[in-house]
Specification:
Elements lengths: L2 H13 L2 H8 L3 H15 L4 E4 L2 E4 L1 H27 L5 E7 L1 H6 L1 H11 L3 E6 L3 H10 L4 E6 L8 E16 L17 E4 L10 H8 L6 E5 L3 H7 L5 E6 L3 H7 L2 E3 L8 E9 L6 H19 L10
Parallel strand pairs: 3-4, 3-5, 7-8, 7-9
Antiparallel strand pairs: 1-2, 5-11, 6-9, 6-10, 6-11
Length: 310
Amino acid sequence: MRLSQLQDFIAVAEHGSIRAGARAREVSAPALTKSIRQLEEELHVPLLTRTTRGVVLSRYGEAFLRRARLIATEARKASDEMSQMLGARNGVVRVGAAGGPAHLLLPAVLTRFRVQHPDVLVCIDSGGYPSHLDELRAGVMDMAVSPVPDEGIEREFTCEPLYNNDSVVVAHREHPLRHARRLRELIGSDWVLTGQRMHGPGAAILDAFRAHDLPLPRVAVRCDTIGMIQSLLQDRHLLCMLPRQLVPGQLAAAGLVPLPIEDQLPSHTVSLIYRADSPMTPVAAQFATQLRREVHYLTQLPDSPLRRPA
């Protein structure tokens, strides 16, 4: 089994046809067909099912694709690492970042990292930890910065705590419930949910209502993009639970304010997450170091946004 065969198979799987895969790989369609046929013969299973519209993965192909992508990604990382150890200053760092840490940490981290590594491409993917774990597991993402659930995550990942992600209920300053002090007062309101799950980070408001034995709030919109949430909350009848650190600055400038809720609200730990069984490339490791340094710097500020209010 050759690396080029895996790359051929991945190209066909991702593009949906032999012809499109061949174009992506810059080889002829017959050559690509031969490569995949040899791979299927070696594995003794059919990886693809040919149809009039192209190809689809067999159940063997779906299972093999996960392994193939991981192998191809690790091979690329190994090549990058050798180049970087020899002094090359290029490469790719791919980071998953939830909304809070993306706005709080990444601007300063990127500024310093770009000065040191101007030829390194940094790719930032939004979203929450569930989607990040899939990308980390597949080897296509170097690290993620995200709040994690209280029960933690799978042991195949290293999870370094960075800071506590306290929650606040946010609304437009002209929302009719702007002065509510109890969650009970918010029963029946429409909410923007920032995650796809029903528990943990991204669904903190659901956990809060459960903890206070209240009927679950009505979810009107699911959205994990802070800029879009900011626009949605211009509707004077929507509420959202967001990290406390996001409220000053951009959200306040958009007329959004935290409600003075006195009930205890969920808090999750924002962590740096990466695979435990695969070392980062040198440039990715340096990016992670910059993240840790930024958290340390913010923690030392007299008015630190990471320090919980008294």
